[in-house]
Amino acid sequence: MSVKNLPDESMRLRYLRDLLRSYIIENVADVRINGHLTECLPCLLNVSFNGLDADSLLLELSEIALSSGSTCTSVNRAPSHVLKAIGLNDAQAQASVRFGLGRFNNEDEIRYVCLRLQKAVNKLRSMAPKPFGVL
User: What is the pLDDT of residues 22-71, one digit of tens each?
Assistant: First the structure.
C-alpha cells in the first residue's frame, strides 16, 4: 500500500473501529472504552469488561486475534501503567482487551467478532461466582 492511500485507509479503519465500539457499547453490559474517543489511532480499540479477566475472554475467543492490556505491556501480566495512568484501577486494567484492525479486515469480520464477543462475555459472566447472599 502506498503512502497516498493512507488517508483513505485510516478512514476505513476508523469506520470499522467505530462500528465495533458502537456495537459493544449498545450490546455488552458494563464495559468501559479506554482512551480518547476521537484522539486515538484509527486501528485500535481498548475495552474493559467489568467482572471478567481478559485472559479468560481471550481463551473463549481463541479464533479471534486479540490482546490483553495495552500495547506497552503485552508481555508483562502486571496491570498496564498506561491504563492505570488514564484512571483504571487494577481490576479494570486486568479486564482490558485490545482490538487491533488492519488492512484486510472488513465489516463482515467486525459483525462476527461482535456476535462472538457478546456470547463469550455473557457465558463468562454467567459462570462467575456470585457474591454471598446473591441468588
Answer: 999 999 999 999 998 889 999 999 999 999 999 999 999 999 999 985 55
Question: Is 34 in contact with 84 (CB distance < 8 Å)?
Answer: no
Starting from the edge strand earliest in sequence, which strands make up the sheet with 44-49, in order?
A: 31-34, 44-49, 96-100, 67-68
pLDDT digit string (tens) for 101-118?
Answer: 999 999 999 999 999 999
Beta bridge partners of 33: 47
Single-letter code of the amino acid located at 45: L
DSSP state of 64: S
The DSSP symbol for 93 reads H
C-alpha grid cell for residue 84? Answer: 492505570
Q: What is the model's pLDDT at position 43?
A: 95
Which amino acids are annotated catalytic?
A: 72
Q: Are 14 and 105 in contact (CB under 8 A)?
A: no
Question: Is 116 within 8 Å of 64 (Cβ atoms)?
Answer: yes
Q: Left if phi > 0, otherwise alpha if psi is -120 to 50, otherwise beta: which for 87?
A: left
